[in-house]
Amino acid sequence: MSKLFIVMGKSASGKDTIYKRILECNLGLKTVVTYTTRPIREGEQEGREYFFRTKEQLDLLEQSGKVIESSCYYTIDGPWYYFTADDGQINLATGDYLMITTVERYQKMRSYYGEEHVFPIYIEVEDGLRLERALQREREQKQPNYEELCRRFLADCKDFSEENLKAAMIEKRYQNIQMDICLKEIIDDIQRERSML
Ligand SMILES: Nc1ncnc2c1ncn2[C@@H]1O[C@H](COP(=O)(O)OP(=O)(O)OP(=O)(O)O)[C@@H](O)[C@H]1O
Q1: Which atom belonging to ligand 1 lies closest to the Cα atom of 178?
Q2: Does residue 156 share a domain with residue 65?
Q3: Residues 56 and 28 in one domain
Q4: What's the ipTM?
Q5: What is the pLDDT of residues 117-169, one digit of tens each?
Q6: In contact, 71 and 23? CB cutoff 8 Å
């Protein structure tokens, strides 16, 4: 049975790093590029991290019924939309996929594709350590945006509340203290899930 493996976690929990490391394991998982209206960041590339679109382009896609799910974040720099489009990238008849998304969007994907096809990979890091990692990463940016870092850190408490995780039926947490240990646990679970009929 084909599956969508969905990586989730608070800001700076290590989602992106873990996602890349899973792909490096060459398990044959396909990737899905989602969309955003936020401005492109240093080092990002159109169609690699995201497809970067304007709000007007999102509206047009929505009008033509091409948006599977979307979410809006009210950032310091204005509203940023993140969405998945029905653009032919996901075909559960042809394989398994790896994606990164939020709990809210995970729930929408689960409703859209069916819970038996969607497997959560929820990454957790103790808040103090996570803030340290977030700050370190922000310092390395050309134009650090500490205000946005703080906004996201606080917003995470709400978005990833125990109540929301429970509602999304996310039970297992992968602790990202040491990357290699965390990664092994995830890979083992992906392989076990894929071996199930
Ligand atoms: N196990 C780890 N040990 C040390 N540093 C780590 C570990 N995992 C991730 N990091 C570092 O923490 C920072 C945040 O990781 P990453 O960018 O992957 O997080 P993210 O969850 O994708 O963040 P965001 O959602 O904010 O983009 C990065 O600088 C990364 O190198």
Answers
A1: 1
A2: no
A3: no
A4: 0.98
A5: 999 999 999 999 999 999 999 999 999 999 999 999 998 988 899 999 999 99
A6: no
